[in-house]
Write a structure and sequence with these properties.
Blueprint: E1 3-7, H1 10-21, E2 26-30, E3 35-37, E4 42-44, H2 47-55, E5 59-60, H3 72-85, E6 89-93, H4 101-104, E7 111-115, E8 123-124, H5 127-133, E9 138-145, E10 154-162, H6 169-191, E11 208-209, H7 225-234, E12 241-245, E13 248-258, E14 269-273, E15 276-280, E16 285-293, E17 299-300, H8 301-306
Parallel strand pairs: 1-2, 1-6, 2-5, 6-7, 8-11
Antiparallel strand pairs: 3-4, 7-9, 9-10, 12-13, 13-16, 14-15, 15-16, 16-17
Helix pairs in contact: 1-2, 1-6, 5-7
């Protein structure tokens, strides 16, 4: 069975590595164009492209796939590459481009998507972050045969995974990547000898995981502490929750919520010691335990306070 793959981040590279380890020939890899990254903003290949280059697989990086769209020339080149690759199945994981009908109809076994939620909950671009932000206690992986809708295809396989009470998006993504890799290998083995099982998604319980906007990273101290603590975990590592201290950006990488009667205005520092920076919120106290100044590195509050004087009454951010 000949496999083509479409994906971009590390989450997708985990599945691609598992497919290769299982022995299927990878005849084409589609991934996003190289993006500027790092302090020098030099073009950097995606984790999927890095893996493909290591194995010597053909790579295509179209900016779009619509044959009649802005990037029609890129799309036509990608179509030629797909025709030359002759895949039986296209596995898709966090690719970042919408697949038009001509792609969906090309592989004889269809396009098999690895989606990081229990569909139909959290269709869309940011299912891992939105699940944590919403306070879900479990998520999982759904394998689906793609159609032209937004994550609306028939379910092939599904497995749940608990979300830890202090789990960040980064750690959860790693566990989901491993689960997705295992499930897709199982499905491909099944597809070699029989049609994949499929069932429609339930009509009830649909939610949408909208793409994370950088503006969401700013902590609104009028919000409840429990909501802010979930947002800190959901936005670790990208884009990173933030506030301001003395007019400069302060990233917040770890925090916990505590119930307490109001002792100050939202955003006011109530105490700052080795145990954490206690900040008043709209409901309860948010205790910051790991932070980062602009241009610095992530520090425990204990280490941060060695180089920063922070006294009760100081204000963080601008309460919305």
């Amino acid at each position: 069975m000949r496999v083509a793959f479409a994906g971009t981040p590390a989450f997708a590279a985990t599945a691609l590595a598992a497919i290769a380890a299982a022995g299927w020939p990878v005849t084409l890899v589609l991934t996003q164009p190289d993006r500027p990254a790092g302090r020098g903003l030099q073009p950097r290949p995606s984790p999927v492209k890095v893996l493909a280059m290591q194995h010597g697989w053909p790579v295509a990086q179209p900016r779009g796939l619509r044959l009649d769209g802005r990037w029609a020339e890129d799309a036509a080149a990608a179509r030629s590459a797909l025709e030359a690759a002759r895949p039986d199945v296209l596995v898709v994981a966090a690719y970042g481009l919408i697949l038009p009908r001509w792609v969906l109809q090309w592989p004889r076994l269809g396009c098999l998507n690895i989606h990081a939620s229990l569909l139909p909950r959290w269709r869309g671009a940011a299912p891992i972050q939105r699940a944590i932000e919403a306070g879900d206690t479990q998520t999982g992986i759904t394998l689906m045969l793609m159609d032209e809708g937004l994550d609306t295809g028939d379910i092939v396989a599904m497995e749940a995974l608990p979300i830890g009470p202090q789990e960040s998006a980064g750690s959860l993504q790693g566990r989901l990547a491993d689960l997705g890799a295992r499930l897709v290998v199982q499905a491909l083995r099944m597809a070699e000898s029989a049609p994949l099982p499929r069932r429609p998604q339930p009509a009830e319980g649909v939610t949408y995981a909208h793409k994370i906007d950088k503006a969401e990273a700013a902590l609104d101290w009028h919000a409840p502490a429990a909501v802010l603590a979930r947002r800190v975990r959901a936005f670790d590592p990208v884009p990173g929750a933030m506030t301001t201290l003395d007019g400069t950006v302060l990233k917040v990488w770890a925090a916990r919520a505590e119930s307490a009667p109001p002792q100050g205005a939202p955003g006011e520092v109530l105490a700052a010691d080795d145990a954490g920076i206690r900040v008043q919120t709209g409901d309860g106290v948010l205790v910051l335990t790991e932070v980062q100044r602009a241009g610095g590195r992530r520090l425990t509050v204990r280490d941060f306070l060695r180089g920063a004087a922070l006294t009760p009454g100081a204000r963080l951010g601008t309460a919305a």
